């Protein structure tokens, strides 16, 4: 049974899931009836100074793989239609460049300002981590309604400290768009 996290909770993947090496970060959402949204999942692979190691370590719909082959975005889902995960990022933890200390996972609404879209048009949204080898869900963080006016959210982050990978359920909303994250972390 998966662990359900609340905002701010931390889960030590290395200690609680020994031998875990390949994970799938699944992001899902349900759009309220009568609406359409194009949400985009992104991963920012950050060094200890809080910046991208290089531009190529920003993994998103236009750059599907990190240069170290440790992260792979499976592609853009433009509608969110269907059950289960709408966008997925695969991570091979042992391959992650040793200079990376954080992997920030964000979701932003494509052209939110132009289309007057926000997370209030969603019924629910979540991030979850699965063990790729066993297909078992390890943890899940369901976002609540507090983000209804936001256009982008830091869902969570993987952090590395003392060779342990942890997941932190961030839940930080903003209205800066994907470019705002790029400006902050590039």
TrEMBL record:
The keyword Disulfide bond does not apply. Signal peptide: none annotated. This is General stress protein. One of its GO terms (biological process) is response to tellurium ion. Keywords: Tellurium resistance. Pfam families: TerD. Residues 1-185 form the TerD domain. InterPro entries: Stress/Tellurium_Resist, TerD.
């Amino acid at each position: 049974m998966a662990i359900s996290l609340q905002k701010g909770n931390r889960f030590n993947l290395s200690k609680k899931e020994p031998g875990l090496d390949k994970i799938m970060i699944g992001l899902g959402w349900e759009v309220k009836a009568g609406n359409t949204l194009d949400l985009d999942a992104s991963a920012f692979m950050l060094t200890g100074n809080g910046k991208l190691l290089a531009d190529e370590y920003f993994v998103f719909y236009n750059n599907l793989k990190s240069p170290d082959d440790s992260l792979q975005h499976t592609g853009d889902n433009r509608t969110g239609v269907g059950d289960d995960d709408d966008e997925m990022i695969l991570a091979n933890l042992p391959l992650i460049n040793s200079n990376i200390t954080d992997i920030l996972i964000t979701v932003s609404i494509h052209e939110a300002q132009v289309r007057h879209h926000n997370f209030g048009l969603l019924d629910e949204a979540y991030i979850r981590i699965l063990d790729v080898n066993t297909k078992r869900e390890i943890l899940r963080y369901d976002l609540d309604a507090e983000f209804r006016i936001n256009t982008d959210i830091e869902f969570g982050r993987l952090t590395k400290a003392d060779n342990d990978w942890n997941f932190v359920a961030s839940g930080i909303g903003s209205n800066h768009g994907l470019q705002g994250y790029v400006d902050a972390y590039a």
